[in-house]
Amino acid sequence: MSTQAEKIQTDAIQKQVKIRIKRDYRHRFELLDVFLLAFLVFFAAAIILPFVSVIATSFATQREYLSSPLLLIPTEPTMANYQILFVDGRIWVGYRTTLLILAIGVPFNMFLTTSVAYALSRPRFPGKKIFLYGILFTMLFSGGIVPMYLLMLELGLINTIWSVILVYGVNTFYMIIMRAYFISLPDSLMESAKLDGASEWRILFQIVLPLSMPIIATLILFFSVDRWNEWFNAMIFLRRNNMVPLQMVLRSMVIEATIDRTMEASQGLGEITFSDGMRMAAVVVTMLPIMCFYPFLQKHFVKGIMIGAIKA
Fold first, then answer.
1. Could you tell me the pTM of the whole model?
2. Pair 62, 156 in one domain
3. Are 245 and 94 in contact (CB under 8 A)?
4. Does residue 97 contact residue 244 with C-beta atoms inside 8 Å?
5. Are residues 123 and 22 in the same domain?
6. What span, in angstroms and rounded, lies between the C-alpha atoms of 208 and 204?
7. Whole-number Å distance between alpha carbons of 282 and 247
8. CATH code of the domain in which 160 resides
9. How do residues 78-128 score in pLDDT, each as one tens digit?
């Protein structure tokens, strides 16, 4: 009887100890949750508040902006900043050129990147390591702007849209991501297709690409953002006013607005252009199309990045 009583007492003590440990663990876990939640809220606010302030400033007047630099909700909203941007006909020229670069450049980039990545992902591709190391070498060293300009000049592509499109073909980093995804696909699928007499192009377009939609959507988004933000190559190769992309147009308009504000202030004129509002309106106009395009690719974007990171 005493042995049984001791056993019951021991079990009760162990149970109480487990309950206390579990309670302490829950308490520590709740404190960690509070810390993580506070950190994430602070981090989200640091991202969202400047973004909201940019949009609010684009609809604000200069007087309201000067009274509150961190403006979140304008009390006197106005469309004057956007009117200044869109009344100028250059904004439409910029949109047309940028959309043309986007429509031609992204398929061109995807075709080259997909072809190179697929070839370098095949285990029996002759000279694969030589080509791979040669491509990786370009990540560290390049010919520079002057040789590229002389090449475009020799080809007669200066002041044409093709100079901006062809100068940017394969992004090495994006190609490595796509190659890692292709390597992760089972080789048995490709071997079965070869036994059925399928060519490499047929295997690529009918087997590999349908299975690679996450990484394709990811790279389409990457290339689209790169092409949408195109300005450096356009500044070098394009001199015609009817071929200027959107980023260059917005840059010139904001610079002109800043100069006009300085001249008006120095001359004591009453009506002064709100250049800060124009800058914010230019930012909104530039990022709005990409923001509308991103939600449709977000699911594939996250999946493609995760798979590429794991398999690389």
1. 0.71
2. no
3. yes
4. yes
5. no
6. 5
7. 9
8. 1.10.3720.10
9. 787 788 778 777 788 888 888 899 899 999 999 999 988 888 888 777 777
